[in-house]
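Lab notebook: predicted structure, single chain.

Context: the supervisor wants predicted structures on file for every construct in the current expression panel, including those that have not yet been purified. This is the next one on the list. No modifications to the sequence; it matches the entry in the shared construct table.
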Amino acid sequence: MPTTTVLLLNVVLGSIGAGYLAYGRRNSHLPASLCGLVLIIGPALIPAPLPMVLAAGAVMAIPFLLRG
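Prediction complete. Output recorded below exactly as produced.
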C-alpha cells in the first residue's frame, strides 16, 4: 500500500504532467507533450519517493534542453 508521500507526489507530478501535455499540444511541441505523458503515467510505476522525484526532475528538464 502506498504511503501518503507517494500518493501526494503522484498527484503533484501528474498535475505538472498535465500542464506539460497541455502546453505541448497547444504549441505543437512534441517533447513537452511526451514528457507530460511520462509525468502522468511514470510516477505510478515507481514505488519509492526519492527515485520518483529524481526521475521526474530529469523528465521535466528535457523540454527545456530541447527548446529550439
